[in-house]
Amino acid sequence: MTSPLGDLPSAPPAEPLVVRTVALDAPDDLLSLLPEDAPLTWVRRGDGLVGWGEALRVEVAGAERFADAERAWQRVVAHAVVRDEVRLPGTGPVAFGSFAFDDDSPAGGVLVVPRVVVGRREGRSWLTVLGTAADLRDLPDEGPLAAHVAALTPVRAPGEVTYGPGAVPAADWPAVVARGVAAIRAGEVEKVVLARDVVARTAEPLDVRHALGRLAERYPTCWTFSVDGLIGATPELLVRSEKGLVTSRVLAGTIRRTGDDDADLARAAILAHSSKDLEEHEYAVASVARALAPFCSSTNVPDAPFVLHLPNVLHLASDVTGVLAGVGEPLPGEAGGTAGHPTSLTLAAALHPTAAVCGTPTEAARDLIRAVEGMDRARYAGPVGWVGADGDGEWGIGLRSAELDPDDPHRLRLFAGCGIVAASDPAAELAESRAKLVPMRTALASD
């Protein structure tokens, strides 16, 4: 069913959601269960969630998009009838979500509640079916899933892929970076993250499953996602909230890999001691720690970053962790949550945008992005992930991603961004952006 929540986020659902979760022997590859039409995905190292169909949809927009989505989800859950025989994070009612980077973007945000979810965590898997009481008269079992798998169409390759300029051609983008550097040196901001897009066209209508499978295979340590036309494999976890514990993985500071293991080890050492990259990373970590502090009774910030090795690049990375404020402890503003805890959506809203995708100070950096970047990021670099009935969930940052064109199945926009500080070189930042486009370009390849 399509909910009126898209028009009125505070309204209760027209019909209560009925949700049933049972244990299941799922295949090793969760992505093999996905249909071609609008698949929903959040998978890392074979674990995670996949979904399809649409039981309910919440569309939001503007500066209050996270709060509106939060209120809508809490009303859905409050009226839901749930039978959960597994009781793990990700079982019971689940909504996949994706939100625009900028408050003013027409891309807004969305929560999608699938009709079917299959999940796996640490060797246990499950099936969740969601709908109305009329839809779900019998407990779900493996029979409907087997019929679903038998009806799946084969995954299609996209054929030849051609690339063209996005909003700002590559040859002009160093000038955009130079304007960012000038603003930093003039004292307007300390750091700014600038992004660009590239337009891809596929010979055949894009079968998203092809791209998702290649991303999951080549980037298993990243979170492979697909939500409402935004697909990708992000290395950056904005926030995970689980049973009172919160984690955020911060990436800032990047160097391209050469393909030679010995050379890459040397480059990792260079990255770990690069004053420019360490400065960029310090800004990003500090912004996350500041945003989490009001919600946590304690936080832990590593003394130094580690080097995260991905197939195409090396990143400076830090995992910031915290313990959420307990029952009865005051929370800032109108934070939502169950039993006195802020939800993962509330935390995502508080963290977004981090210095890793915006800059420092946040408002000044966002204003500079609007002034010089020359494009609408839409949901690129915005939160993407899932939330459960108890408010726990996982939200990544929509990086290494592409936006499908809803009107043209052959067209999509690929995105890449770079952190700019006073020492940044525009030509080097262009090269870094090209390295960050590699995951999606590889995902679209047919070989």
* Helix and strand composition category: alpha+beta
The appropriate CATH architecture of the largest domain is 4-Layer Sandwich
Radius of gyration: 21 Å
Helix content bin:
25-40%
Please identify the top-level CATH class of the largest domain: Alpha Beta
Mean pLDDT: 90
Assign the CATH superfamily of the largest domain.
Anthranilate synthase
For the largest beta-sheet, the strand count, sense and barrel status come to: 13 strands, mixed
CATH topology of the largest domain: Anthranilate synthase
Give the end-to-end Cα distance, rounded to a whole number of Å.
Answer: 39 Å
What is the overall silhouette? globular
Return residue spans where pLDDT drops below 50 for at least 5 consecutive residues. 1-12, 327-339
Count of DSSP strands: 23
Beta-strand residue fraction: 25-35%
- Number of individual domains: 2
The helix count comes to 9
Structure, briefly:
With 447 residues, the protein is α+β, with helices and mostly antiparallel strands. The protein has helices spanning 65-79, 142-151, 173-185, 208-218, 261-272, 275-292, 344-351, 362-372, 426-444, and strands at residues 18-23, 40-44, 47-52, 56-60, 81-84, 94-99, 109-113, 116-121, 124-131, 161-165, 191-202, 223-227, 230-234, 237-242, 245-256, 296-300, 306-309, 313-324, 359-360, 383-388, 393-397, 401-404, 411-420.
Structure description:
The longest helix is centred in the last third of the chain and has 19 residues, at 426-444. Helices cover 26% and strands 32% of the residues. Helix 1 runs antiparallel to helix 7 (344-351) and helix 3 crosses helix 9. The two termini are 39 Å apart. The strands form two sheets. Strands 1, 2, 3, 5, 8, 9, 10, 11, 12, 13, 19, 22 and 23 form a 13-stranded mixed beta sheet that branches. Strand 20 (383-388) and strand 21 (393-397) form a beta hairpin. The protein has two domains: 4-151, no CATH class; 161-226 and 237-444, Anthranilate synthase (4-Layer Sandwich). By secondary structure, it is an alpha+beta fold. The protein has nine helices and 23 strands. The model is unreliable at 1-12 and 327-339 (pLDDT under 50).
